[in-house]
Design goal:
The protein is of the alpha/beta class. 46% of the residues lie in helices and 15% in strands. It is built from 14 helices and 6 strands. It has a 6-stranded parallel sheet with strand order 3-2-1-4-5-6, sandwiched between helices. Helix 2 packs antiparallel against helix 12. The longest helix is centred in the middle third of the chain and has 18 residues. It is globular, with a radius of gyration of 23 Å. About 8% of the residues have low confidence. Keywords: ATP-binding, Magnesium, NAD, Nucleotide-binding, Nucleotidyltransferase, Nucleus, Phosphoprotein, Pyridine nucleotide biosynthesis, Transferase, Zinc.
């Protein structure tokens, strides 16, 4: 692997209610784009379904959403599902989820240092010439490989949600774009660039925001999937087959499930509004 390239882990947070083929495409589009810059190598993708405490209308239990995400990524060689966020009793801000995954990578990096070459070097025969010995010594020196960087993978809707009052803390937005970075997959003709231009914080850190154009437009959304299911319509080819089978087996989406959390204020709005008043 080219050491001059920064290794990147793509993290997608969201409801995944249910996960769709579009969610999986975001990872492929982002990976192609980042690898294509010549500066990055995408080594892993992580799907992190939000916990039940998020209180979004129509949000079915995290247990089911995690299983569906695991079924959807069953055949992927590089995208996996992480349950940490979904298991938290309280809703966790996206910044905290990013921080958790970056620290986890750093901890595993420390646990697996490259093997020390000292023992091998001591066993070398002295009859080698100085030239051979120095070249051998050089090749044996352990390379301190950098820890991969976690970046937030999102659609243009998440980027635009930054403007919704009290949905995000302004300091969280600053830290996300400054310390981690965004890879935003947007449809051709979408105003993601204009949105970045109109925000002082996003403009300041624009070099850490990668806007990926999705030329093969894909308008599948979880909301539309749930609507089709409520109406008894087919969702085949919109979600992975295993996900469709799981939904049908457990009869997951109905008018009743869509009313779940109806009238409940979304966790971030509740928390941030309360903090703004204090």
């Amino acid at each position: 692997m080219d050491d001059s390239k920064t290794e990147v882990v793509l993290l997608a947070c969201g409801s995944f209610n249910p996960i769709t083929n579009m969610h999986l495409r975001l990872f492929e589009l982002a990976k192609d784009y980042m690898n294509g810059t010549g500066r990055y190598t995408v080594v892993k993708g992580i799907i992190s379904p939000v916990g039940d405490a998020y209180k979004k209308k129509g949000l079915i239990p995290a247990y089911h959403r995690v299983i569906m995400a695991e079924l959807a990524t069953k055949n992927s060689k590089w995208v996996e599902v992480d349950t940490w966020e979904s298991l938290q009793k309280e809703w966790k801000e996206t910044l905290k989820v990013l921080r958790y995954h970056q620290e986890k990578l750093e901890a595993s990096h420390c646990d697996h240092p490259q093997n020390s070459p000292t023992v091998e070097r001591l066993g070398r025969k002295r009859k080698w010439t100085e030239k051979q010995d120095s070249s051998q010594k050089k090749s044996l020196e352990p390379k301190t490989k950098a820890v991969p960087k976690v970046k937030l993978l999102c659609g243009a809707d998440l980027l635009e949600s930054f403007a919704v009052p009290n949905l995000w803390k302004s300091e969280d937005i600053t830290q996300i774009v400054a310390n981690y970075g965004l890879i935003c997959v947007t449809r051709a003709g979408n105003d993601a660039q204009k949105f970045i231009y109109e925000s002082d914080v996003l403009w300041k850190h624009r070099s850490n925001i990668h806007v990926v154009n999705e030329w093969i437009t894909n308008d599948i959304s979880s909301t539309k999937i749930r609507r089709a299911l409520r109406r008894g319509q087919s969702i085949r080819y919109l979600v992975p087959d295993l996900v469709q089978e799981y939904i049908e087996k457990h009869n997951l989406y109905s008018s009743e499930s869509e009313d779940r959390n109806a009238g409940v204020i979304l966790a971030p709005l509740q928390r941030n509004t309360a903090e703004a008043k204090t």
